[in-house]
Amino acid sequence: MFCLNFKSFFLNPFSKTPSTCCYIPKDATQQSLFLSKYPEFDGRGIKIAIIDSGCDVSLEGLQKTSEGLPKIMDYFDFTGAGDVDTSVVKEMDSKNVLIGLSGRKLKIPQKWINPSGKWHLGLKALYKPSLNSKKVPEKLPEIDCIVWYDGKKWMACVETYKNDLQKAKILTTFREDHEYGILKLNKLKMAYCITIHGDGNLLEICTPYDDHGSIVARIAAAHFPGKPEQDGLAPGAQILFMSVLDPSKGLNQNMEALKNSILKCIDMKVDIINYSISYFAGDEAIENQIYEMIIQCNILLFKSAGNRGPFYGTVWRGERDVDNVTFTIGSILTPELKRRLYNIPLADNNYADTNNNPSVEYNSVRGPGLMGSRGVDFTAPGTIITNMAPRFYSDLRNLAYRGTSNSSPNAAGAVACLLSALKGNSIQYSPASIKFALFKTANLPNNAKQFEFGHGIIQIDAAFDYCKKNVIPNYSTGSAGILFVWNDENRNFVERSVNLSDFIKTTDDERADAKWMLELSSKNDEKFIKISQTNENKSFAVKVNRSSLEAGTLNYTEIMVIDPLIGTILNIPVFAISLLKVTETRNCYILREAYLKNPYHILFEPFFKSGSKKCEIKITALEKVVKSKVCIQYLVFDENRMPSAEGKNNMKVLEFSPKDRIQTYFLSIKNEIIHDLCIYQVINSSTTKLKFELNFQDSDHNVKNTVE
Q1: Full-model pTM
Q2: Kind and range of the H or E run holding 381
Q3: pLDDT tens-digit profile of 258-285?
Q4: Which fold has domain 477-578?
């Protein structure tokens, strides 16, 4: 069984300058501060499992930990893509020649010790690494494989394409010697390692199928002796690498491989799993397996939120059974990254982005998530700049990688340092207690939206202090929220009765009679929402005033559940979405003037039986423009209010200049469920005050996009 992955990051080549070489953000999560105070808690004693596509084990930074231990403890390819049947056994002739399964004559060097004289033979065409995850990778030429027992351990040679096997690398199982080889085929250099199974009858060759897994591993835990600025987040941690993306299926996820990787994580007693490649496809068996692993084995699972932003509701909503216990990580862009990537001077108000504060990456997904959850738990930096690309790159060396695939290992590596400190101080923890400590100490920037940032940016130094000074309650909290969606202008008030037991569970002896108080996270939100206090059954009422909300908007607040002794123990997300209704007989006109510091969204729902309408989008630069770019994107949701696959390519970039100050763009609208139209200013363009007019009108196929 396979499911489509959303592992992706955006990469750009850079010139080799000091500002763009080898930068992994560490300050935002307090990792730099933490290690300056506790250098011995750099992830030592922590095992991180990377479940991904493949890894280049030859890369600098992935060789040793800060203590000199092997960085990659073991490598597993659960897809079977690198498996070689070596059950055919032959002996060499009097001239030390073996006939390989390809028919080639293989002259065996005398230094290859084989007391039994039995040689296991196989034939394999490995997959060529690909930078395009949408295509099935090409296969390399077939190579003969030789496996034998030297009296102490099983050995193998796959570099049989060399005319002189004296120069060929021979390897044993990777976890024993931690050695690798370099295949050189068709002008390609590719690192590999091996594992030998079944008394020599099965050879497993592990190779990188793309660059994704190598980058993720480096972010989480790379270590460069003498170059701490190039280290990953947890230089002292060890890695177990597990490939689950099948190259024979276009690097889509192999669900059976995922099941086996989870079992291996339990068997190897890992502390943290990083999962940056996909979702769990609503597979109930896998979700149950993951849930039991987290609860029973105390393993923290970090996963990427996804890269379908900036639209609302784009977080994956099919993981109900594990959403509460995993760590879903969104992606932010820090001020330092803005300077390095885009040459934006800090505190320069001439640029579209608010430069002094971290901002959510445009591609990072937004809530609401499943059952009205905020969708994202926490955020971390999602961009790195590196000149340490996998070996199969021949010309690109300085690259920037962006996406939630990177923010997840950034968070996982930072938390590995936190776990290292907790273990070093004999402080007990669980995934739930770590999540609570991070919730209490996360950094939420001013005016940030929790359904974009989650609870905020992870702060491991503050979380460590919190764990040392506080007893963390053993509450079981859910991630669900309260969601109101309507397009009926005749209903001004909506009221719902809610019970706290839907969001939090307590044991019988654990403050069961505590009188919890409820407050809104912002007094300003009282203009559209009112809440009561809980009654004796812990029920309360939530009342939303739709008349105070603008049509076409998503409105958000949180209900804080406050324990008189502990403080806030839970924030319940509340979404109030007031859709703009477009019908056969009713068109709409919207006029706004604003600086687009943040994306502007309009949520509308068409209601007409046949045909289509159009939305005319006219944008005028009201001030002197040097050069400015505005992006228009829209996404159509299906009947289940899930993002449709076709919406991700609906993008138009409008460029403004002193000569081109007015631009008009037409969008065709069909009778779908919900449209999210998003307008935002490109980050590295100069900001200007804009007037934008949205005019919904009857369809006219003769209209043209214009520039004035």
Answers
A1: 0.93
A2: strand 378-381
A3: 999 999 999 999 999 999 987 776 678 8
A4: Immunoglobulin-like (2.60.40)
